[in-house]
Amino acid sequence: GSDRAQERGIAYYKLSRDSFSAGRLTMASELQKALANNELKLYLQPKLNLATGQIAGLEALIRWPERNPSVGADEIIMLAEQTGLIKPLTRWALEQSLQLRNCLLENGQRFKLSVNISPNNLREPDFPLFVKRLMSAHPQHGGAIIFEITETSMMQDPVNALKALNSLTNAGIPVSIDDFGSGYSSLSYIKQLPASEIKIDRSLITDLATREEDRVIVQTTIDMCHSLGYLVVAEGVEDEATANLLKGMGCDMIQGYLLSRPLPLEKMLTWLTDRHEAASMQRAPG
Length: 286
Ligand code: C2E
Ligand code: MG
Ligand code: MG
Ligand code: MG
Prior knowledge:
Layout: H1 2-18, H2 22-36, E1 41-49, E2 55-63, H3 73-83, H4 86-106, E3 113-116, H5 119-122, H6 127-137, E4 145-150, H7 151-154, H8 158-170, E5 175-180, H9 187-190, E6 197-200, H10 202-205, H11 212-227, E7 231-234, H12 240-248, E8 253-255, H13 265-283
The chain binds ligand C2E and magnesium ion (3 copies).
Protein name: Diguanylate cyclase/phosphodiesterase
Organism: Marinobacter antarcticus
Keywords: Membrane, Signal, Transmembrane, Transmembrane helix
């Protein structure tokens, strides 16, 4: 009776007060429309292998071009997570990534492609099955779509996150731990992760050239990750000095504005071709 109604009333009140203010509701419904009308895009940012000087792969990052830069990726994802849109959004991003990689292959670019996944996705009971079906329908991308998941997000529910990650890796999906060093996960947890790659958070990289403490932390992280069998990527590398330091520290890969900002597919294809041509000019005699 009225108690029930009151409970519902309270529930509504809480919803509208906490995360569903009028402005947010409008934004959420606009985001839903943008997703349905294919107005969201994935931009691509390269990763460089420091030992070989070759491009090691690309990361897909979401953009809402009509709202860029006022609504950034972090905000899109936060809004999607709060409204349940993250489930269709991630499925769209995965399908879109496969299409992008088809275009890359057609242009002779056989790079691995990293896609960011939300911890909410790991809590969807049918997520591993969705992924398995999608990947077996596109065998040309087998092992070439890497799932990135942030270290901090897994700590909300470490046991289930680990289970979900294990079922993904059992399905042949390589997993990368994003934003490593920005949270407080224990070493015993990290060593259980079925990941192949660790990405050191930009906050530890930004002042590497000037802060001795950051160099100690990053060197220790690289060595520890190597001992545990992970490849190491440094995020947010913006200058040569930092890249050279990381190379000397044995870091495997770098990503950041030094190489390129995230670009739409067409521009990334041009960037990759230009870079390739510049490299072969350097190799050519005379
Ligand atoms: P992330 O996965 O850690 O991605 C790296 C972020 O750093 C990106 O921000 C990238 O544009 C930015 N970045 C790269 N190099 C540099 C640099 O040298 N300097 C600086 N200052 N920044 C650099 P972006 O694109 O705004 O994405 C923010 C976060 O949003 C991502 O962090 C990721 O956690 C999330 N995200 C982005 N796209 C998606 C998506 O499709 N799905 C999900 N679930 N999350 C996504
Ligand atoms: Mg990432
Ligand atoms: Mg990151
Ligand atoms: Mg991040």
